[in-house]
Every structure is written in C-alpha cells, then in structure tokens.
Design goal:
44% helix; 11 helices; 2 domains; Rossmann fold; disordered C terminus; 338 residues; six-stranded mixed β-sheet
C-alpha cells in the first residue's frame, strides 16, 4: 500500500485527543451524577445497557474520524502499467557569465536576474528537453539536453563569473556550442534561448545565426541590462573594472545585436523585465505555440489504484449506524422509587 498525500497524516493526532476527551466526559458525567443523587441511585438511573450504547457511539465516531483521515491520505493499492508519451521541443539556454553580467543596473545584478529567469522558465516547461551552455570569453555545455529538470537546476546554481576563467563575451562561440549540443540525427524542433547583455568581442554571432537557420534552429534572445549601463564590479569586491587607460568600464545593453540575431533565424527578442512577461512571450507565444512538438520519449509508468472511496464509504456507514443508536433514557421507575 502507498499513500498519495501523507500531508494529512497529522490528522491522526485527533484520534487520541478524542479518546482522552471522551474518557474525560464519561468520568465527569458519572462524577456529577453520583454527587447529585448518590452512587446507589446513580447505578439505578443509568443502567449498564445505556453506558454500553454511549461507549459504542463514541467508538463508532472515533472509527469514522479515522476513516476520514485515511481517505484524505489517499490510500492506494494495486496498480497497472501505463505507457506515457512525452513530446516537446529541444531547448538550449545559453547564459552569459562574463564579468559584465555583475553590473547592478538590474537588481540584484544581471547574472542573478538571468539565473532567476532560467529557474522560472524550467518551471514552465511541459515535457521539453532542456540544456545549459555557459559562456564568457569561451563557451561550453554546462548541462546536456535532459528531461531531468531537477538536475538542470543543480547545474544552474553553479553558474558564476569564476566558472570560465577566459575574460570577454563570445556570443558567437556560445551559439556554436549551443548548435553542437543538439543531436543532429534527431528530427526534433530546436530552439536556443540566448540570455546576455549583448556585448560581443568579434566572434561574428550573425554568421553563426545564419548557420543555425540552415539547420532549422530558431534563436530567441533576452536582453539583460539597461541603455544607460552601469560600471562592472570586480568579482572580489575591490572596486570597478577599468580599461587600459584607467577609466571605469561602463557596460550597456546592446539590443541591436540581439535583435539581429533573433531576426536572422525567425526568433524573437525581448528585454528582461520583472515578472514572467518576457518568458511568456518567448516560451508560451513563440516556442510552445509556434514550433512543432515532436515525440521525445515513451516510458512505462506504474499507476496505483486509488482506494480512498472505500474509506469514505466506511466513514459514512459508521456515522449512519451511530445516528441510529439511542443513548437510552433514565429509568422512570427508579426516579419514582427515589
């Protein structure tokens, strides 16, 4: 036997509490009756049969509560095998982890915003395979395509500027790594979601985007940052990054580059905003609604048979029986005798 919702197991504490309450009530009732008319007359007023009926009603009520608690925990036994088809889109998320992503023109900073966006996106997925590519001055596959969203979240937590020691922002390399992360012989719909501030150091991302289009891969871009920009803090917290002339480096969002990349493959560009509106635009409106879903896997799943209805029926029957049992009346003859 298994249970579908053990969160209700705490209700079982009601049963010993009710037992104590019934015991207290019976003892208090007997003590009050004996104090009123004496022990001998109390025994004559309340015969043993009446006491047994009262106790029986209490036991039936306790059993009904126990059955209700059991039903809420959704007991299951017996099972059958069911074939589950999973279909979706292969999605690679390429996320910028360069030093410029530490700029704080987006709270708390660009990289943390990007990681939160990816976490929220994973929560939206409905059967799609997902992978992660991290890039700075170079790029590599951080998490290969998988249906294990929990594992992907674990890889996501380790993303940071110290992950890739090569400085710079190589968007072209990121797109190449994303393209190679797909399995070429599989005829699945493929999408790349590029999350970056758009700065690129001569890696010709538009040429790579044209190559992606030839392979049927759509690129969607999310811009992280602001038009005014912000200075780039050093990872160790010792001031801001400076160029060779000693000037503080100010990193700005390069929307034009990201728009061109998305346009080249028939994708969409959005700027990161608070909330999920940007993710809704890319995933719900474009990937889910605009790309063909293909079968990714078929698995056999053990489906347990729900048996909570038996416990509900038992509780109702016990309550019905309890309602038909009379507690009995005081013996009128005994009252007249007294």
């Amino acid at each position: 036997m298994t249970f579908g919702n053990l969160a209700y197991i705490h209700i079982l504490w009601i049963v010993p509490a009710l037992i104590m309450l019934y015991l207290y009530a019976f003892l208090k009732k007997d003590a009050a009756l004996k104090a009123l008319c004496g022990e001998e007359l109390a025994e004559r007023l309340v015969p043993a049969g009446t006491r047994r009926r009262q106790q029986c009603k209490a036991v039936l009520m306790l059993m009904a509560v126990l059955c209700i608690a059991g039903a809420l925990m959704r007991p299951r036994w017996g099972f059958h095998w069911e074939t589950v088809q999973r279909s979706g889109v292969d999605i690679i998320i390429a996320v910028d982890v360069s030093k410029s992503m530490l700029a704080t023109d987006i709270e708390p900073n660009r990289l943390e915003r990007a990681k939160r966006k990816i976490h929220d996106l994973i929560g939206m997925l409905e059967g799609d395979r997902i992978g992660l590519v991290a890039f700075a001055g170079t790029a590599f596959v951080q998490c290969p395509l998988t249906l294990d969203y929990g594992a992907c979240r674990m890889f996501l937590e380790h993303l940071g500027p110290d992950l890739i020691p090569v400085p710079g922002t190589a968007i072209g390399d990121a797109l190449r790594a994303s393209i190679t992360a797909f399995t070429r012989h599989e005829r699945t719909s493929k999408a790349v979601i590029l999350i970056t501030d758009g700065e690129d150091h001569d890696t010709d991302p538009l040429a790579v985007a044209r190559e992606a289009k030839k392979r049927g891969i759509k690129i969607f871009t999310i811009g992280i940052g602001s038009d005014t920009g912000a200075p780039v803090p050093q990872p160790e917290g010792s001031g801001f990054l400076k160029d060779q002339r000693g000037n503080v480096v100010v990193s700005k969002l390069n929307e034009q580059m990201l728009q061109q990349i998305a346009l080249e493959t028939g994708g969409t560009y959005v700027r990161s905003v608070t909330g999920d509106m940007d993710l809704h635009t890319i995933y719900r409106e474009n990937i889910r609604a605009g790309m063909e879903r293909t079968e990714l896997s078929a698995t056999r799943t053990k489906r347990w048979e729900e048996r909570f209805q038996w416990f509900v029926a038992a509780a109702l029957l016990l309550l019905l029986i309890e309602s038909f049992i009379s507690e009995g009346k005081l013996r009128g003859a005994a009252v007249r005798t007294s």
